[in-house]
Design a protein that fits this description.
By secondary structure, the protein is α/β, with parallel strands linked by helices. It has two domains: about 5-205, P-loop containing nucleotide triphosphate hydrolases (Rossmann fold, 3-Layer(aba) Sandwich); about 215-385, Rossmann fold (3-Layer(aba) Sandwich), CATH 3.40.50. The chain is about 40% helix and about 15% strand. Helix 12 (about 275-285) links the parallel strand 10 (about 265) and strand 11 (about 290-295). GO terms for molecular function: ATP binding; catalytic activity, acting on DNA; hydrolase activity; RNA binding; RNA helicase activity. Its EC number is 3.6.4.13.
Length: about 400
C-alpha cells in the first residue's frame, strides 16, 4: 500500500516522497486512515522508531485549516529534545503549505515563545512549559481540534500526570485526542479511559521492546583496555552515540577522541539548552560523527541514520538499556549496539538481557582476561553462589531442656 492509497493529500504524498519514504510503516498504515476519517479518538502502541510522528503528523497537517491563524493542534512530548525533533519533522512534512509550527519548552527565553504563539497553528511542547503559557494566557486553546500525547508512558514515568490533566481541563470539550506510546502500562490506560471517547486502539507491536534490526553484542574487557577496543569499533563506518554514566566522563572521553582525530562532541545535562541544540544539530547534519552522551540523549534524539550505539559502561537496568539502543535500528534500517562490561559483570548483563527480552552475544573483539582477573571473577562467582544457596538460611536453633 502506498501513502496515496491511505487518503493523504497530494502535498503530504510529495513531502514523504521528498524524504525518501516510498511505503508507509505498519503504524502509519493503521493510524493515518483513522485520523483522516475524523470519527474517533486514537490510542496507538508501537515500538520506538516505527514512524509514529508521521502517523499522526501527516493527517493533522492535511486537516489543519491554513486560513485560521490560531492553535488547532497541540502535541505534548516528555522532553525538550523530542519536542524539537517532532516540530522539525512536522515542518519537513508540511511541504509548501503555510502552516506555522512552533516548539515550546523550558530553558528558552519566554518572550520569543510568546510572540511565536500569536501565529502558531500547531504547537509542540513539554507539559510544564505548555501549562505555564496556558496560565499566562499566552497559549489560547479555544480553537483546538487535535490533542496528541506522544510517548505517554514516558511522560507519566517522569511525573507529568498532574500537568497533563490540568492541560486537558484547559482544552475544549469537542476535540480529537490521540495517545501514542511504546508500552501501555495501567496508568496510561486509565488516562485514556478518563479523557478519551471510545478510542480506536491500534497495537502494532506489543512485546518487541527493542527493534529487531539491532544486532547486539557485549565486550568483556579490563578498564585499561576499553578505550583501545573502542577505537577499533570507531574505525568501522561509525555514525552513532557512545553512552556514559557521568557528565565528567562524556567530556573526558570526547576530548580524548578528538585528540586521536575523531569528530566527537559531548552532550550532557551541564550544557545550556541552546548549546545542546547546536551540538545535536551538528551531529544530525553529519558534521559530528560521534556523540558522547549521558542518558539525556536516551529519549527524543531521532536520527534514522545512526549506525551504532555503544554503552561505554553497563547500563543501570533493562529500561535504560532499551532506551539507549533504541536510538539505532530505526525506520527499518540496520543498527548495532555494543555494551562494554567489566570483569565480573556478565551475570548482571544477562539479567538485564532477560528483563529486556533480548539476546546479547559475545563480540569477536572481546579479549582473553588476564589471569588475575579470571581468578577474581571466579572468586566472585563462588561467593555469589554461596550467598545464593546458604546466605539467607537462619542458623539452626538448639532446643532448650528444662
Amino acid at each position: 500500500m502506498s501513502f496515496k492509497e491511505l487518503g493523504l493529500s497530494k502535498a503530504s504524498v510529495e513531502a514523504v516522497e521528498r524524504r525518501g519514504f516510498s511505503e508507509p510503516t505498519d503504524v502509519q498504515r493503521e493510524v493515518i486512515p483513522l485520523i483522516l476519517d475524523g470519527k474517533s479518538d486514537v490510542v496507538g502502541q508501537s515500538k520506538t522508531g516505527s514512524g509514529k510522528t508521521a502517523a499522526f503528523g501527516l493527517p493533522i497537517l492535511d486537516l489543519v485549516d491554513e486560513s485560521r491563524k490560531e492553535v488547532q493542534a497541540l502535541i505534548l512530548t516528555p522532553t525538550r529534545e523530542l519536542a524539537i525533533q517532532v516540530s522539525e519533522e512536522l515542518r519537513s512534512l508540511r511541504g509548501k503549505r503555510k502552516i506555522d509550527i512552533y516548539a515550546i519548552y523550558g530553558g528558552q527565553p519566554i518572550g520569543p515563545q510568546i510572540r511565536a504563539l500569536e501565529r502558531a497553528q500547531i504547537v509542540v511542547g513539554t507539559p510544564g512549559r505548555v501549562l505555564d503559557h496556558i496560565r499566562r494566557g499566552t497559549l489560547r486553546l479555544d480553537s483546538l481540534r487535535f490533542f496528541v500525547l506522544d510517548e505517554a508512558d514516558r511522560m507519566l514515568d517522569m511525573g507529568f500526570q498532574e500537568d497533563i490533566e490540568a492541560i486537558f481541563r484547559a482544552t475544549p470539550r469537542e476535540k480529537r485526542v490521540m495517545m501514542f506510546s511504546a508500552t501501555m502500562p495501567m496508568d496510561v490506560l486509565l488516562l485514556a479511559k478518563k479523557y478519551m471517547k471510545n478510542p480506536e486502539v491500534v497495537i502494532v507491536s506489543r512485546d518487541e521492546l527493542v527493534p529487531g534490526e539491532v544486532e547486539q553484542e557485549f565486550i568483556e574487557a579490563v578498564p585499561t583496555r576499553r578505550y583501545g577496543i573502542l577505537k577499533k569499533i570507531l574505525s568501522e563506518d561509525f555514525y552513532g552515540i557512545i553512552f556514559c554514566q557521568t557528565k565528567v566522563e562524556t567530556r573526558e572521553l570526547a576530548e580524548r577522541l578528538r585528540k586521536d582525530g575523531f569528530r566527537a562532541e559531548a552532550l550532557n545535562g551541564d550544557m545550556s539548552q541552546p548549546s545542546r541544540e547546536r551540538t545535536f544539530g551538528r551531529f544530525k547534519r553529519g558534521k559530528t560523527e560521534i556523540l558522547v552522551a549521558t542518558d539525556v540523549a536516551a529519549r527524543g534524539l531521532d536520527v534514522p541514520e545512526i549506525s551504532h550505539v555503544v554503552n561505554y559502561s553497563i547500563p543501570m537496568n533493562a529500561e535504560q538499556y532499551i532506551h539507549r539502543i533504541g536510538r539505532t535500528g530505526r525506520m527499518g534500517k540496520k543498527g548495532k549496539a555494543i555494551t562494554f562490561i567489566a570483569p565480573g559483570e556478565l551475570r548482571r548483563l544477562r539479567y538485564i538481557a532477560r528483563q529486556a527480552g533480548v539476546d546479547v552475544r559475545k563480540s569477536e573483539l572481546s579479549e582473553e582476561l588476564p589471569k588475575e582477573y579470571r581468578e577474581m571473577v571466579r572468586r566472585d562467582e563462588l561467593e555469589n553462589e554461596y550467598r545464593h544457596r546458604w546466605g539467607k538460611k537462619r542458623p539452626r536453633q538448639r532446643r532448650r531442656r528444662y
